[in-house]
Amino acid sequence: MGRLAPPWDRLLLDARLATLRDDLGAYGAIEDGALAWKDGLIAFAGPARELPGEPAALAARVESAGHRWITPGLVDCHTHLVFGGDRAQEFERRLQGASYEQIAREGGGILSSVRATRAADEQALLAASLPRARALLADGVTTLEIKSGYGLDFETERRMLRVARRVGETLGITVRTTCLAAHALPPEFAGRPDDYIAATIEWLPRLQQEGLVDAVDAFCEGIGFTPAQTRRLFEAATALGLPVKLHADQLSDLGGAALVAGFSGLSADHIEWTGEDAVRAMAAAGTVAVLLPGAFHVLRETKLPPIDALRANAVPMAVATDLNPGTAPLQSLRLAMSLACTHFRLTPEEALRGATHHGALALGLHDRGRLVPGQRADFVQWRIGHPAELAYWLGGELVHAVHVAGRRVQ
Ligand code: NIG
Ligand code: FE
Q: What residues bind N-formimidoyl-L-glutamate, as annotated (predicted)?
């Protein structure tokens, strides 16, 4: 702990901390709190009366937090925010009765975003993607995952992942990149899904060498890839030392959640159709359940993910936006938290843990997500009277300030 000893860089007094520590009460709350950081890490997060000396002697700068609530920076652990074009017309068609799967089988859906993404150069893709990432940041997100999957050829998948990295560099926030080349079958491989999986397996080490891949994902579904194809991809990813995660059991139960748990995967995402045995497999493997209520809402789904079984088996539940042009044009993680409460009956506290600590776990990040000494000093000061408000308000400007590694970015 020596390196976190005073003198600290900054000390905030009059803070109400939602630490999300498990050993405290609701929200891990500390009402008369103080928060200090040093070299980008939290050095103190506790009751002000436990400060080890006079505030002025402890830090180079001491300020009042004005009794504002402070939470860890939000973690959006599942997005597809790099893409060209939009799918507003598909939205109109679905409202007239066409289903998501029907549109996909007609060559629209994901493939229409593939056409628009292939047509966009790196600069255009970055210009289209930055405002979406900025919207998330403005609502408290300090760590973000971005998937590829609208390229479906080597060059465009690579371009998407490069843009994802540039989003992080431009905004000064952490971006984790996930290769989702196995998102849909590109027209060049029509009728040859196994050949396409083989191609994506070839791309992986090349993308990995360029530092563009933190994890590997697939869409295991009737309109995506089979469990056998997913397994081949996961075997290749595992051989490269890359962690896996999966779009699992969203529209039907193909056993996707159990499959990804079998690879000790980071997360099984969507999981509306996942059964109890698979939930037990996730618990045993430490695989996080990523709930995506935005897609559930937009597709007007009715099959609820197995929330009670997840709770009973103590599977960590994360909440993410799934921000994408088709099923979730959702640019606020707080709104995803609200939808998780309303549709899935998460408590506001579960939703906040889902958008912080558990979101971080779904990315394999253990250095953030709670206000605890030693964690990164990623935190948000909010204009609220109680942490439940974060999931309660639909929209609104609740952010007072956002810090990433101790540096104010918003
Ligand atoms: O997470 N399910 C597959 N992928 C996305 C949707 C992608 C799209 O429709 O563009 C999802 O919902
Ligand atoms: Fe998704």
A: 150, 324, 326
